[in-house]
Amino acid sequence: MLTYIVKRLLGMVPTLLLVAVAVFFFVHMLPGDPARLAAGQDADDQTVEMLRKEMGLDKPLAHQMVNYFSRLAHGEMGTSLRSRRPVTQEISERFSPTLLLTLTSMIWSVIFGMVIGISSAVWRNKWPDRLGMTIAVSGISFPAFALGMMLIQVFSVGLGWLPTVGASSWKHYILPSITLGAAVAAVMARFTRASFVEVIQEDYVRTARAKGLSERIVITKHTLRNALIPVVTMMGLQFGFLLGGSIVVETVFSWPGLGSLLVNAVVQRDYPVIQGLVLLFSVEFIVINLVVDVLYGVINPGIRYK
User: 85: alpha, beta or left, given left = phi > 0 and alpha = psi -120 to 50?
Assistant: First the structure.
């Protein structure tokens, strides 16, 4: 297992290099001049040129790329073009709110989605199945920004129960986590149902029932472990999407996280911040996939890695 993990970690290096190269050229293809945006539309050409030189944007693109990868080799992501602060500091200040929001959304959505999915599989083609799948389809179909604005209108503007801006208390997490996790809960419900329906029809499950075992034991002991393997895969992918895809929700709720930081960086053409965030999201996906693979062996000890 340890050898497998080390190999996977070493395999991250070429992947991240390719991502870094692609992102570097992509951000420099974005329309707009960062120096002009920083100086303002009324600034003269001399001021803009001075800012461009200060930002290092006056050098050839190849020279800028060499400088960028040289900083990465030393564990640095550069300096923000707008705030003049290290990119690592900009990201670290915004990482915690996004991580906590993602974990909150993931916990409730996984529990809710798996309960609905298992119930639908056990009582398939009956009213719990129809009700659960109706809820799941609604969760997938409803856009996140529309759900967020509806929740704000009802629970903040109308009832005044919950705040909408900031992340200073547990109440601030309720509406954003519901908005962010609704689609995940729906996907988990449908995926869990499909996985459990497939496993329930296996011969060993029918044999367990024929032995007179209770339905609870059949589901928890003979079905759950085998059905969880594809569910864990989906769970890991959804967690990665939540970490990197909370931009809409963070924008709707003015959440001080990585999503809003990325939006601001794109608007301001802050190249180092954009590159740092995309690299971070790539690392997150790779690490999450590795954790999911390791969890396979925990769920099913029969799986061996080489």
Answer: beta
Distance of CA 277 to the CA centre of its chain: 12
Neighbours of 66 (CB within 10 A): 12
- Cα–Cα distances (Å) from 294 to 8, 28, 289, in that order, read 11, 38, 9
pLDDT in tens, 133-171: 888 877 777 777 788 888 888 888 888 788 777 677 788
Whole-angstrom Cα distance, residue 250 to residue 145? 10
- The dihedrals phi and psi of 60, each to the nearest 5 degrees, come to -60, 155
Which residues on neighbouring strands pair with residue 79, listed in sequence order? 86
- Secondary structure (3-state) at 82: coil
Query: In this structure, are residues 221 and 236 in contact, taking their beta carbons and an 8 Å threshold?
Result: no
Instruction: Kindly provide the residue ranges of all beta strands, DSSP E only, lying in the chain, ordered along the sequence.
Output: none
DSSP for 162-215 reads: S--S--SSGGGGHHHHHHHHHHHHHHHHHHHHHHHHHHHTSHHHHHHHHTT--H
Place of tokens 């390791």: 294
Q: What is the pLDDT of residues 126-136, one digit of tens each?
A: 887 888 888 88
CA dihedral 86, 87, 92, 98 (to 10 degrees): 150
* Interacting residues of 23 by C-beta distance below 8 A, sequence separation 6+: 274, 275, 278, 279
146's tokens: 């529309």
List the Cα angle 247/252/258 in 5-degree steps. Answer: 30
AA identity, residue 234: M
CA 37 to chain centre: 30
Beta bridge partners, 86, equal 79
Whole-number pLDDT of residue 304: 55
Write out the two tokens for 237: 């992918």
Q: Residue 237 in contact with residue 225, Cβ under 8 Å?
A: no
